[in-house]
Amino acid sequence: MDYALMMTAYAKRAVRKLTQQDLLYESLRRAILDGDIGRGTRLASSRALAEQLGIARNSVLYAYERLVEEGFVSATRHGSVVNAVSAGAVATPTQTTQREEPVPALARRVRELPPRRAGRDGSKALRPGVPALDAFPYAQWRTAVERALR
Protein backbone atom coordinates (compact mmCIF):
# COMPACT_ATOMS: atom_id res chain seq x y z
CA MET A 1 0.00 0.00 0.00
CA ASP A 2 1.24 3.48 -0.82
CA TYR A 3 0.94 5.31 2.49
CA ALA A 4 2.17 8.62 1.06
CA LEU A 5 -0.61 8.60 -1.52
CA MET A 6 -3.16 7.71 1.14
CA MET A 7 -2.02 10.60 3.37
CA THR A 8 -2.04 13.07 0.48
CA ALA A 9 -5.56 12.06 -0.50
CA TYR A 10 -6.79 12.43 3.08
CA ALA A 11 -5.01 15.79 3.53
CA LYS A 12 -6.91 17.17 0.52
CA ARG A 13 -10.24 16.16 2.07
CA ALA A 14 -9.37 17.32 5.62
CA VAL A 15 -11.38 20.26 6.91
CA ARG A 16 -8.56 21.64 9.06
CA LYS A 17 -4.78 21.55 8.93
CA LEU A 18 -3.44 18.51 10.76
CA THR A 19 -0.04 17.68 12.22
CA GLN A 20 1.89 14.84 10.61
CA GLN A 21 0.98 12.57 13.50
CA ASP A 22 -2.73 13.36 13.29
CA LEU A 23 -2.73 13.20 9.50
CA LEU A 24 -1.17 9.72 9.53
CA TYR A 25 -3.55 8.55 12.26
CA GLU A 26 -6.66 9.93 10.56
CA SER A 27 -5.69 8.57 7.14
CA LEU A 28 -4.94 5.09 8.53
CA ARG A 29 -8.15 5.15 10.53
CA ARG A 30 -10.18 6.19 7.49
CA ALA A 31 -8.51 3.53 5.32
CA ILE A 32 -9.36 0.84 7.90
CA LEU A 33 -12.98 2.01 8.17
CA ASP A 34 -13.38 2.23 4.40
CA GLY A 35 -11.94 -1.27 3.98
CA ASP A 36 -8.88 -0.14 2.02
CA ILE A 37 -6.77 -1.83 4.68
CA GLY A 38 -8.44 -5.14 5.45
CA ARG A 39 -8.68 -7.23 8.58
CA GLY A 40 -5.47 -9.13 9.35
CA THR A 41 -3.31 -6.81 7.25
CA ARG A 42 0.05 -6.14 8.83
CA LEU A 43 0.99 -2.45 8.85
CA ALA A 44 4.47 -1.33 7.85
CA SER A 45 7.06 -1.12 10.62
CA SER A 46 7.39 2.27 12.24
CA ARG A 47 10.96 2.71 11.01
CA ALA A 48 10.16 1.78 7.42
CA LEU A 49 7.03 3.93 7.33
CA ALA A 50 8.81 6.93 8.85
CA GLU A 51 11.57 6.62 6.26
CA GLN A 52 9.09 6.18 3.40
CA LEU A 53 7.03 9.23 4.43
CA GLY A 54 10.00 11.36 5.50
CA ILE A 55 8.60 12.00 8.98
CA ALA A 56 9.85 11.29 12.49
CA ARG A 57 9.49 7.75 13.80
CA ASN A 58 7.78 9.10 16.93
CA SER A 59 5.01 10.47 14.72
CA VAL A 60 4.40 6.98 13.35
CA LEU A 61 4.55 5.45 16.83
CA TYR A 62 2.03 8.02 18.08
CA ALA A 63 -0.39 7.21 15.26
CA TYR A 64 -0.03 3.46 15.79
CA GLU A 65 -0.56 3.81 19.56
CA ARG A 66 -3.78 5.73 19.02
CA LEU A 67 -5.01 3.05 16.63
CA VAL A 68 -4.21 0.38 19.23
CA GLU A 69 -5.95 2.39 21.99
CA GLU A 70 -9.10 2.65 19.94
CA GLY A 71 -9.13 -0.99 18.90
CA PHE A 72 -8.41 -0.58 15.19
CA VAL A 73 -5.05 -2.35 15.42
CA SER A 74 -3.51 -5.02 17.65
CA ALA A 75 0.15 -4.73 18.56
CA THR A 76 1.86 -8.12 18.46
CA ARG A 77 5.47 -9.28 18.56
CA HIS A 78 5.36 -9.52 14.80
CA GLY A 79 4.04 -6.01 14.16
CA SER A 80 0.78 -4.12 14.10
CA VAL A 81 -2.17 -6.05 12.67
CA VAL A 82 -5.52 -4.55 11.65
CA ASN A 83 -8.54 -5.80 13.63
CA ALA A 84 -12.02 -6.47 12.30
CA VAL A 85 -13.95 -3.23 12.68
CA SER A 86 -17.60 -2.58 11.96
CA ALA A 87 -18.49 0.97 11.01
CA GLY A 88 -21.39 1.07 13.51
CA ALA A 89 -19.18 0.12 16.45
CA VAL A 90 -16.76 2.98 15.92
CA ALA A 91 -16.98 6.37 17.58
CA THR A 92 -17.49 9.45 15.46
CA PRO A 93 -14.38 11.35 14.32
CA THR A 94 -15.04 14.24 16.72
CA GLN A 95 -15.13 11.85 19.66
CA THR A 96 -11.85 10.14 18.74
CA THR A 97 -10.06 13.38 17.92
CA GLN A 98 -11.05 15.10 21.16
CA ARG A 99 -10.75 11.95 23.29
CA GLU A 100 -13.66 12.86 25.55
CA GLU A 101 -14.19 9.28 26.70
CA PRO A 102 -11.46 7.47 28.67
CA VAL A 103 -10.13 4.18 27.41
CA PRO A 104 -12.59 1.54 28.74
CA ALA A 105 -9.93 -0.72 30.28
CA LEU A 106 -8.36 2.22 32.10
CA ALA A 107 -11.73 3.48 33.32
CA ARG A 108 -12.54 0.02 34.68
CA ARG A 109 -9.23 -0.16 36.55
CA VAL A 110 -9.76 3.29 38.06
CA ARG A 111 -13.22 2.32 39.32
CA GLU A 112 -11.71 -0.73 41.04
CA LEU A 113 -9.25 1.37 43.07
CA PRO A 114 -10.04 1.70 46.79
CA PRO A 115 -11.32 5.13 47.89
CA ARG A 116 -8.68 7.56 49.12
CA ARG A 117 -8.70 9.06 52.59
CA ALA A 118 -8.78 12.82 52.96
CA GLY A 119 -5.62 14.59 54.10
CA ARG A 120 -5.36 16.87 57.15
CA ASP A 121 -6.48 19.90 55.17
CA GLY A 122 -9.44 17.96 53.77
CA SER A 123 -8.02 17.69 50.26
CA LYS A 124 -7.85 14.31 48.59
CA ALA A 125 -5.11 15.27 46.15
CA LEU A 126 -1.81 13.46 46.14
CA ARG A 127 0.86 15.89 47.27
CA PRO A 128 4.31 14.67 46.18
CA GLY A 129 7.14 15.66 48.46
CA VAL A 130 4.94 15.98 51.55
CA PRO A 131 5.57 13.14 54.02
CA ALA A 132 2.88 11.42 56.06
CA LEU A 133 3.54 13.40 59.25
CA ASP A 134 1.01 11.41 61.27
CA ALA A 135 3.16 8.28 60.73
CA PHE A 136 6.52 9.97 61.47
CA PRO A 137 8.39 8.53 64.51
CA TYR A 138 9.09 11.84 66.36
CA ALA A 139 10.38 10.23 69.57
CA GLN A 140 12.92 8.07 67.74
CA TRP A 141 13.96 11.01 65.56
CA ARG A 142 14.53 13.26 68.59
CA THR A 143 16.61 10.54 70.28
CA ALA A 144 18.75 10.08 67.16
CA VAL A 145 19.28 13.86 66.76
CA GLU A 146 20.24 14.32 70.42
CA ARG A 147 22.71 11.44 70.18
CA ALA A 148 24.27 12.96 67.04
CA LEU A 149 24.58 16.40 68.68
CA ARG A 150 26.30 14.99 71.80
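Above is the first protein from milestone M3; the second protein from the same milestone is given next.
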Amino acid sequence: MSILVIGEALIDIVSSDGAPDRYSPGGAPANVALGLGRLGDDVELLTDVGDDFHGGFLLAHLRESNVRVHARPTGSTSTARALLSPDGSAEYEFSLRWDPDASLVDRGDWAAIHVGSIAAFLSPGAGAVDSLLQRGTDSSALLSFDPNIRPSIIGDQQHALARFESLASQVDVVKLSDVDADWLYPGQSAEAQIDRILRLGVDLVALTCGSDDSILSTTSARV
Protein backbone atom coordinates (compact mmCIF):
# COMPACT_ATOMS: atom_id res chain seq x y z
CA MET A 1 0.00 0.00 0.00
CA SER A 2 1.47 3.34 -1.07
CA ILE A 3 0.84 6.27 1.27
CA LEU A 4 1.62 9.96 0.77
CA VAL A 5 2.13 12.14 3.87
CA ILE A 6 2.25 15.92 3.45
CA GLY A 7 3.62 18.14 6.18
CA GLU A 8 6.44 19.62 8.16
CA ALA A 9 9.66 18.04 9.34
CA LEU A 10 11.53 20.10 11.90
CA ILE A 11 14.01 20.01 14.75
CA ASP A 12 12.73 20.12 18.33
CA ILE A 13 15.13 21.93 20.67
CA VAL A 14 14.68 21.66 24.44
CA SER A 15 16.47 24.34 26.49
CA SER A 16 16.76 24.54 30.27
CA ASP A 17 19.05 26.42 32.67
CA GLY A 18 22.29 24.65 33.48
CA ALA A 19 21.97 21.99 30.79
CA PRO A 20 22.98 21.81 27.15
CA ASP A 21 20.29 22.09 24.53
CA ARG A 22 18.76 18.80 23.41
CA TYR A 23 17.97 18.31 19.74
CA SER A 24 15.63 15.73 18.21
CA PRO A 25 13.85 15.24 14.88
CA GLY A 26 10.16 16.16 14.95
CA GLY A 27 7.13 17.43 13.11
CA ALA A 28 3.82 15.58 13.49
CA PRO A 29 3.47 14.59 9.80
CA ALA A 30 7.11 13.51 9.64
CA ASN A 31 6.49 11.30 12.67
CA VAL A 32 3.47 9.74 10.93
CA ALA A 33 5.58 8.96 7.87
CA LEU A 34 8.39 7.58 10.01
CA GLY A 35 6.02 5.28 11.91
CA LEU A 36 4.51 3.98 8.67
CA GLY A 37 7.97 3.37 7.23
CA ARG A 38 9.02 1.39 10.29
CA LEU A 39 5.83 -0.68 9.98
CA GLY A 40 6.89 -1.65 6.47
CA ASP A 41 4.48 0.48 4.47
CA ASP A 42 5.46 2.09 1.17
CA VAL A 43 5.44 5.72 2.33
CA GLU A 44 6.42 9.06 0.79
CA LEU A 45 6.74 12.41 2.58
CA LEU A 46 6.42 15.77 0.86
CA THR A 47 8.10 18.27 3.14
CA ASP A 48 10.35 21.35 3.32
CA VAL A 49 13.82 21.24 4.89
CA GLY A 50 16.95 23.34 4.72
CA ASP A 51 20.34 22.52 3.25
CA ASP A 52 21.92 22.96 6.69
CA PHE A 53 23.06 20.38 9.26
CA HIS A 54 19.55 20.07 10.70
CA GLY A 55 18.09 19.35 7.28
CA GLY A 56 20.64 16.65 6.59
CA PHE A 57 19.97 15.12 9.99
CA LEU A 58 16.21 15.02 9.32
CA LEU A 59 16.61 13.50 5.87
CA ALA A 60 18.94 10.79 7.16
CA HIS A 61 16.61 10.05 10.09
CA LEU A 62 13.60 9.62 7.80
CA ARG A 63 15.39 7.63 5.12
CA GLU A 64 16.76 5.23 7.74
CA SER A 65 13.12 4.39 8.48
CA ASN A 66 12.34 3.70 4.79
CA VAL A 67 10.59 7.01 4.09
CA ARG A 68 11.00 8.36 0.56
CA VAL A 69 11.37 12.10 1.10
CA HIS A 70 10.38 14.68 -1.51
CA ALA A 71 12.08 18.01 -0.74
CA ARG A 72 14.35 20.63 -2.27
CA PRO A 73 16.71 21.46 0.61
CA THR A 74 17.56 25.15 0.76
CA GLY A 75 18.03 27.75 3.47
CA SER A 76 17.41 27.02 7.15
CA THR A 77 15.44 24.11 8.57
CA SER A 78 12.41 24.88 10.74
CA THR A 79 12.83 24.56 14.49
CA ALA A 80 10.59 24.46 17.56
CA ARG A 81 12.36 25.48 20.78
CA ALA A 82 10.88 24.63 24.19
CA LEU A 83 12.19 26.81 27.01
CA LEU A 84 11.79 24.91 30.28
CA SER A 85 11.39 26.79 33.57
CA PRO A 86 12.48 25.32 36.93
CA ASP A 87 8.89 24.19 37.67
CA GLY A 88 8.80 22.18 34.44
CA SER A 89 6.49 24.48 32.48
CA ALA A 90 7.54 25.51 29.00
CA GLU A 91 7.41 28.44 26.64
CA TYR A 92 7.80 27.84 22.93
CA GLU A 93 9.60 29.69 20.18
CA PHE A 94 9.10 28.67 16.55
CA SER A 95 11.21 29.43 13.52
CA LEU A 96 9.14 28.05 10.67
CA ARG A 97 8.79 27.99 6.95
CA TRP A 98 6.50 25.85 4.84
CA ASP A 99 6.97 26.07 1.08
CA PRO A 100 7.20 22.54 -0.36
CA ASP A 101 7.52 21.83 -4.07
CA ALA A 102 4.45 19.80 -5.03
CA SER A 103 5.93 19.15 -8.48
CA LEU A 104 8.32 16.68 -6.85
CA VAL A 105 5.36 14.34 -6.36
CA ASP A 106 4.66 12.96 -9.81
CA ARG A 107 2.41 10.01 -9.12
CA GLY A 108 -1.26 9.94 -8.18
CA ASP A 109 -2.13 6.35 -7.41
CA TRP A 110 -1.75 6.41 -3.62
CA ALA A 111 -3.91 4.18 -1.48
CA ALA A 112 -3.97 6.90 1.20
CA ILE A 113 -2.99 10.54 1.69
CA HIS A 114 -2.45 12.05 5.13
CA VAL A 115 -2.13 15.78 5.84
CA GLY A 116 -1.90 17.70 9.04
CA SER A 117 -0.51 20.04 11.63
CA ILE A 118 1.17 23.36 10.85
CA ALA A 119 1.44 22.52 7.15
CA ALA A 120 -2.33 22.48 6.76
CA PHE A 121 -2.61 26.11 7.87
CA LEU A 122 0.65 27.87 7.00
CA SER A 123 1.10 29.68 3.68
CA PRO A 124 2.42 29.44 1.05
CA GLY A 125 2.63 25.65 1.40
CA ALA A 126 -1.04 25.24 2.29
CA GLY A 127 -1.68 25.60 -1.43
CA ALA A 128 0.34 22.44 -2.08
CA VAL A 129 -1.79 20.64 0.51
CA ASP A 130 -4.95 21.74 -1.33
CA SER A 131 -3.73 20.69 -4.76
CA LEU A 132 -2.60 17.23 -3.62
CA LEU A 133 -5.79 16.66 -1.64
CA GLN A 134 -7.74 17.47 -4.78
CA ARG A 135 -5.74 14.86 -6.65
CA GLY A 136 -6.62 12.40 -3.92
CA THR A 137 -10.30 13.35 -4.08
CA ASP A 138 -10.26 12.65 -7.82
CA SER A 139 -8.90 9.17 -7.12
CA SER A 140 -9.93 6.39 -4.74
CA ALA A 141 -7.36 7.28 -2.07
CA LEU A 142 -8.33 7.26 1.60
CA LEU A 143 -7.83 10.82 2.88
CA SER A 144 -7.00 11.62 6.51
CA PHE A 145 -6.38 14.87 8.41
CA ASP A 146 -4.93 15.63 11.85
CA PRO A 147 -5.01 19.39 12.60
CA ASN A 148 -2.65 19.16 15.62
CA ILE A 149 -3.58 22.74 16.51
CA ARG A 150 -0.81 25.19 17.48
CA PRO A 151 -2.65 28.42 18.36
CA SER A 152 0.49 30.58 18.59
CA ILE A 153 1.30 29.74 14.97
CA ILE A 154 -1.99 29.53 13.12
CA GLY A 155 -3.41 32.73 14.61
CA ASP A 156 -7.05 33.84 14.55
CA GLN A 157 -9.43 31.15 15.81
CA GLN A 158 -12.26 31.90 13.39
CA HIS A 159 -9.94 31.87 10.39
CA ALA A 160 -8.34 28.61 11.57
CA LEU A 161 -11.77 27.06 12.17
CA ALA A 162 -12.86 27.91 8.64
CA ARG A 163 -9.67 26.37 7.28
CA PHE A 164 -10.09 23.27 9.45
CA GLU A 165 -13.68 22.74 8.32
CA SER A 166 -12.78 23.30 4.68
CA LEU A 167 -10.12 20.58 4.84
CA ALA A 168 -12.23 18.24 6.99
CA SER A 169 -15.06 18.40 4.44
CA GLN A 170 -12.72 16.89 1.84
CA VAL A 171 -11.40 13.90 3.79
CA ASP A 172 -12.60 10.53 5.01
CA VAL A 173 -10.97 10.47 8.46
CA VAL A 174 -10.31 13.28 10.96
CA LYS A 175 -8.15 12.55 13.97
CA LEU A 176 -7.82 15.25 16.63
CA SER A 177 -7.19 15.58 20.35
CA ASP A 178 -9.65 16.88 22.91
CA VAL A 179 -7.38 19.94 23.26
CA ASP A 180 -7.66 20.57 19.51
CA ALA A 181 -11.43 20.15 19.61
CA ASP A 182 -11.85 22.45 22.62
CA TRP A 183 -9.88 25.20 20.85
CA LEU A 184 -11.85 24.81 17.64
CA TYR A 185 -15.26 24.41 19.33
CA PRO A 186 -15.00 26.00 22.80
CA GLY A 187 -17.72 25.31 25.33
CA GLN A 188 -19.09 22.28 23.49
CA SER A 189 -19.15 18.70 24.71
CA ALA A 190 -17.04 16.06 23.00
CA GLU A 191 -20.23 14.55 21.59
CA ALA A 192 -21.31 17.87 20.08
CA GLN A 193 -17.83 18.49 18.67
CA ILE A 194 -17.79 15.09 16.99
CA ASP A 195 -21.32 15.58 15.61
CA ARG A 196 -20.33 18.89 14.04
CA ILE A 197 -17.29 17.35 12.33
CA LEU A 198 -19.35 14.40 11.06
CA ARG A 199 -21.85 16.84 9.52
CA LEU A 200 -19.03 18.11 7.32
CA GLY A 201 -19.15 14.78 5.51
CA VAL A 202 -16.35 12.97 7.37
CA ASP A 203 -16.74 9.17 7.52
CA LEU A 204 -14.81 8.64 10.77
CA VAL A 205 -13.79 10.96 13.61
CA ALA A 206 -11.15 9.79 16.08
CA LEU A 207 -11.00 12.00 19.18
CA THR A 208 -8.15 11.26 21.61
CA CYS A 209 -8.80 12.22 25.22
CA GLY A 210 -5.47 11.70 26.98
CA SER A 211 -5.74 9.32 29.92
CA ASP A 212 -9.51 9.05 29.32
CA ASP A 213 -9.03 6.88 26.23
CA SER A 214 -10.42 7.81 22.80
CA ILE A 215 -13.74 8.09 20.98
CA LEU A 216 -14.21 6.66 17.48
CA SER A 217 -17.37 7.75 15.72
CA THR A 218 -19.22 7.41 12.44
CA THR A 219 -22.75 8.60 11.73
CA SER A 220 -24.08 5.18 12.78
CA ALA A 221 -21.79 4.03 15.59
CA ARG A 222 -19.76 5.47 18.45
CA VAL A 223 -17.33 3.62 20.72
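Note on the second protein: The chain has a mean pLDDT of 92.
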